[in-house]
Amino acid sequence: MDNIKLALLGNPNSGKTTLFNALTGANHYVGNWAGVTVEKKEGNLKYKDNEIVVTDLPGIYSISPYSMEEKISRNFIINEGCDIVINIVDASFIERNLLLTLQLLELRRPMIIALNMMDEAEKKNIKINVKKLSELMGIPVVPIIAKDEHGIDVLLETIVNYNYDKKSDFLIQYEKIVENEIDNIAQRLEKHDLKHYEKRWLSLKLLEKDEELIDIYPNFNEDKEVDFEEIITKTKFDYIDSLLKKSTKIPEIKFDEKSNFVDKILLNRFLGIPIFMAMMAFVFYLTFNVGGIFQNWLDIFFSSFLSNGVTSILTSLGVSSLVISLIVDGIIAGVGGVLSFVPNIAILFLAISVLEDSGYMARVALIMDKWMVKVGLSGKAFIPMILGFGCNVPAIMSTRSLENEKDRLLAILINPFMSCGARFPVYVLFSSIFFPGYETLVMFSLYALGVVMALVFAYIFRRTLFKGEPTPFIMELPPYRIPTLKALYIHVWEKVKDYITKAGTVIFGAAVVLWILLNFNFTGLVPVGESFGASIGKLIAPLFIPLGFGNWQSALSLLSGVAAKEVVVANMSILFGGADASMDVLKINLSGYFTQLSAYSFMVFVLLYTPCIAVIAVIKRETNSWKWTGFSVVYQIIVAWFSAMLVYQIGSLFIA
C-alpha cells in the first residue's frame, strides 16, 4: 500500500501519544496519568515512499463505550476506515492490557501489537517471548520503547510490509451456551443491515447488551436468565492466562517498597492535603522569586530599550507622531506587557509538569476523592480541575472521560473557576505591585479560592440542577517516574509557544483596537478622556464601584479580557503606562487608582468572571447547548461580582 491510514489505540497511560510523537515528529503533551488524550489527533509521515496518516485515539480500557472518549475511539475504528490498528500494550502490565487487545482482535481488522515500555517490564523482571506471543495471537508483535524511539523502524517496516488483503481468522471459543446464542443472533442479523460491523463481533456485543448497539438494533434487547457478559469476560481472562503461560514469565508480584513508603506519606488522610498545599505554595514561590528575575529583565527591555530605540529610529525617519504612538504606546506597550511574563509562565508550567509526569498529580485526585464525593462530584472530576490550572479548554474537553452525563455537565460548569495560566500575569502584576514580599501567599489564596468556589457550586448544583449520586471513582495509580527532560521541554515549550503566539495575534490585535478606541471618537483624533474607549469604560464603570475599582480604565480592561485574559494585562500596560510601561511606572500609576484591598478585589473578579471566548466556545461544543453555555457565562459574572464585592465591602470594615 502506498497510502496507509493507521490508528493508535491502547489503555490510558500506555504510551500512545509518545508513540504518536515518535512517528510523526509532533510535540503533543504526554502525561503520567490516564486521560491526557481526550480527542483524536492526526499526523503524517513518509516512510519508504509510503504516505502514512497516523491517528492517536483516546485511551480506553474496553471497546464497550461507557464514556465519550470510548465512543470516539470505537466509532473511529469501526466506521472511519483506518487500514490498520496499532494496539499499544504496556509490557509492564501486559495481563491487564491484553483484554482490550482481544476485544480488538474480535473485530477481525488488520492489527499489529506495539509492545511498549519493554524497559519497564525488564525492571520488573518480566520475560516476554515476543515471537511466541505473535504466533499464539496470529498477528505481528513488535517490542518498542516509544520514549527512546527504540524499535520504531522495525514497527514501520512491519506496517508497510503487512498483508492487508489477509483477513484475520482470530476466534475465541466460548462456552456452548454462549456459542449457541451467538449463532442464533448471527442468523437473525442476516435480515438486518450490518453496517461496518463484523457479524460475530456484533452478535457478541448484542449478547453483552452493548447500549449503543442495542439502540441501533432494539429487537435484540432481550432479557436473559444467564449473565452472558460475565461469562464472556471470564472466558477472555482465561484466554489471557493461557496466552501468558505459554509466552511470558511474570515473577510473583512484590510491592515496590519505595513507592509504597512514599504513598503512605503522600496519601495519608491527615498529611495528603497539607503536603499538596505546601507543594503548590512552593510552585508559586519559584514562579515569583526565580521567574521574577527574568521578568524584570524583559520588562526593562520592552519598556526602555525597545520603546526608546523604536521611537528614535521612527522619529529620525520622519514617521508621524500618530504612527509612532500606535507602535510604541499601543503595540509595544500592550504586547510587551504580556511577553514580559513569559519567564513566570514557563516556570509555573515546568513545576506543574514535574508534578504531573512524576505521577504525583494522579495521587492528588485520589486524595481529593473523599471531599469531592461530599460535594456531589466524582473523584474523577478532579483531574479536569487540575488540568484547568493550565488551560480550561483542554480541561473541559477532558470531562469526556466521565461516564455519567450529569457528572460531566457539572464538571464543565465549575471548571472555569480553576485559575488558568492566562489569568496568571494579572496576579503577578497586581501582587508584585501591591503585596511585595507576600506574592506567594496572595497567589496561593487565589488558586485556593478558585477550588473552593468550584466545590461550593458543585454542591449547590448537585442538589438542584443535577440531582443524583456521583459515579464511584476507580483510578489506576501510575507508577512514580522521573520526568524526562524531553517530555518537560515539550510540555513547557508548547504552553509558552501558545502564550507567545497569542501575544502575537490576539494581544497584538487587541492592542491596536484599544489604541484606536483610546485616541478617536466620531469627531476624529481626541484626548484619551473623550475617546470611544473612555466612553465605553465610563458606561460600565459604575457597576464596579461597590467592588472598589470604579475607574473606567479597569472596567474597559475587564471587558476586553473576555477575548483573552492576557488582554487585561496588555490593556493595563497601555492605559496606565503607555510607552514607559515599566513596572515602576505601572506601580506609581496603578497606586493612584487601587488600594491593596481593591487590588485584591480586582484579582478575585478576574479569577471568577466569564472565561475567554475560547472557553465559551468549547463549553458550547461539549454541552451542545446554548442554554448551558449562556447559563455558564451569566452565573460566573454574577458570582464574580458578588465575591469581589464581599471581599471589598467586608474588608473595608476592618481596613481604614
UniProtKB/TrEMBL annotation:
Ligand binding (GTP 4): N116, M117, M118, D119
Positions bound to Mg(2+) 1: A22
SUPFAM superfamilies reported in the protein's UniProt record: P-loop containing nucleoside triphosphate hydrolases
Name used for this protein in its record: Ferrous iron transport protein B
Binding site for GTP 3: D56, L57, P58, G59
Membrane topology classification: Multi-pass membrane protein
GO CC, one annotated term: plasma membrane
FeoB-type G domain residues: 3-165
Alphabetically ordered keywords of this record: Cell inner membrane, Cell membrane, GTP-binding, Ion transport, Iron, Iron transport, Magnesium, Membrane, Metal-binding, Nucleotide-binding, Transmembrane, Transmembrane helix, Transport
Predominant localisation class: membrane
Binding site for Mg(2+) 2: N21, T24, G25
Residue positions binding GTP 1: G10, N11, P12, N13, S14, G15, K16, T17
Organism, as annotated: Helicovermis profundi
Transmembrane domains' residue ranges: 266-288, 300-324, 331-355, 375-397, 441-461, 499-520, 532-549, 556-579, 599-619, 631-655
Function, in words: Probable transporter of a GTP-driven Fe(2+) uptake system.
Family to which this protein belongs: Belongs to the TRAFAC class TrmE-Era-EngA-EngB-Septin-like GTPase superfamily. FeoB GTPase (TC 9.A.8) family.
Protein localization: Cell inner membrane; Cell membrane
A Pfam family annotated for this UniProt entry: Gate
Binding site for GTP 2: G35, V36, T37, V38, E39
PROSITE patterns to which the protein is assigned, alphabetical: G_FEOB (PS51711)
GO terms of molecular function: ferrous iron transmembrane transporter activity; GTP binding; metal ion binding
